[in-house]
Amino acid sequence: MTPLFDLAVIGSGVVGCAVFRESVLAGLDTLMIERAPDLLAGASKANSAILHTGFDSKPGSLEQRLIRAGHREYLAIHERLGLPLLKTGATLVAWNDQDLAQLDGIDAAARQNGVSLHRLDAEGVRRREPSLAPTACGGLVVDEESLIDPWSAPLAYAQQAVVNGGVFLRNSPVASGTYEDGAWTLRLEDRGEGEKTVRARVVVNCAGLQGDIVEAIARSSPFTIKPRKGQFIVYDKSAYGLISSVILPVPSPVTKGIVATRTVFGNLLVGPTAEPQDDRDVAALGRPQLESLKAAGERLLPSLARHDITATYAGLRPATEFSDYQIEALPDRGWITVGGIRSTGLSSALGIARHVRGLYEESFGRCRPLADPLWPRVPNLTEEFPRPGFQPDRDDIICHCESVTRAEIRAALSDSPLPAGCIGGLRRRTRCMMGRCQGFYCTRRVVELAAPYLPELATLGPGGAA
Ligand SMILES: Cc1cc2nc3c(=O)[nH]c(=O)nc-3n(C[C@H](O)[C@H](O)[C@H](O)COP(=O)(O)OP(=O)(O)OC[C@H]3O[C@@H](n4cnc5c(N)ncnc54)[C@H](O)[C@@H]3O)c2cc1C
Known about the structure:
This is NAD(P)/FAD-dependent oxidoreductase. One of its GO terms (molecular function) is oxidoreductase activity. Residues 6-356 form the FAD dependent oxidoreductase domain. Pfam families: DAO. It contains 11 helices and 21 strands. It is an alpha+beta fold. The protein folds into 3 domains: 1-85 and 148-222 and 324-383, FAD/NAD(P)-binding domain (3-Layer(bba) Sandwich); 86-147 and 226-317, 2-Layer Sandwich (D-Amino Acid Oxidase, Chain A, domain 2), CATH 3.30.9.10; 388-464, no CATH class. The strands form 5 sheets. Strands 1, 2, 8, 9, 10, 11, 18 and 19 form an 8-stranded mixed beta sheet that branches. Strand 18 and strand 19 (335-339) form a beta hairpin. Helix 1 (14-25) packs parallel to helix 5 (152-163), helix 1 packs across helix 8 and helix 2 crosses helix 8 (345-364). The longest helix is centred in the first third of the chain and has 20 residues, at 62-81. It is globular. The relative contact order is 0.17. The structure holds flavin-adenine dinucleotide (FAD). Flavin-adenine dinucleotide (FAD) binds next to helix 1, strand 17 and helix 8.
């Protein structure tokens, strides 16, 4: 007989991982179902990695409340999970009189959102960020905006769920489902091994970019996903010191605009663009957009022109026709919808998870929180703390650009509660192939180490040769 879980989460983006963790810690027997070979296969694999305060969110919106709650909880738990927090703060910069005229309104909305800002004149902006173009004419400082590791955070949430009894099912696209006698039977796409089903009393739809498609399993979806692409340029580590805080523009109602920020890995990032598209899976890079992004970066920071570009990438926001999150429980369907978490899910995920737990308790019954849960730590990948590659007794270095050792790669492939399931997952867990050479020098050795563990490499011959 197929086991009956209390709760099944569909989708292991950052939101699903946080819901998975919260549900397991609440004492619910929980199953995570992911269609891809590893977590973070959708929107969550590519973002700006800013832990937002929600200062510029619409006051009173669900998004604003859950960003605040998520931000708070990240601060409370990150050390126990080994997660970084780079407290850079942000500088919102006015570049003209029109921008200056908006600062009072932004300040007032931030106060309503519980975030206090302070004002800078042109001289104050120059003192705080001397590399900015001299046309900066004023600004606001947001002290609590911070930077985090966008991949280790969801990994830490999912790992904590797994070591405390949660079950993580990969390569399992949910194709359809039926709700009968108070339980869901979800059918997983047949991948040549015959049809599989799983059962749960309650299903939480965290399918991100596929959110409306998965929602159609329970009802006609009340929202439609309208992917919005964001492209980025990653500058070499030499550019890291050009700014000390996140440089924000005055936002528009549609986008937070082009940001320049450090990363916790020691680079400098410029982006994202905001480009609507129909495709939910492929975030293609476009030369003209990258060229205008580069020009925009150099308008902000003229000396950026002297620094090399390490990489470019793009992500897709799971936007909908609504500006707010679409989160709702359907008590008579055993279903909780978590959709349209477009541009702020990394910051709000832990707040969303708490909110979902509240909806579960209201609609489906009380939880039995674990008395003494385990707190597994993720490996440190940032420059903030010592890394194995810099220790005197270190193992062989495989990726020299990011100083990733053989031991770190082996641990991510086999000695972890949630081992990497694909090369992308291995990169996100270790930073191998993510440095200056983008894998030009280390790919062969990484593939040699990974081939026994990753099915996608199984067709490669010895040494990774096809
Ligand atoms: C350009 C850009 C910049 C951003 N910057 C920031 C930032 O600085 N700070 C911030 O807080 N947020 C930021 N965000 C937003 C954040 O990345 C998103 O809000 C978040 O990733 C949404 O996550 P999700 O879990 O809802 O969806 P997803 O990450 O899309 O996760 C959905 C998961 O469901 C799986 N799935 C789908 N269908 C099925 C199925 N049928 N069966 C099983 N599994 C399924 C997918 O494979 C995927 O793993 C940014 C986003 C973008 C694109």
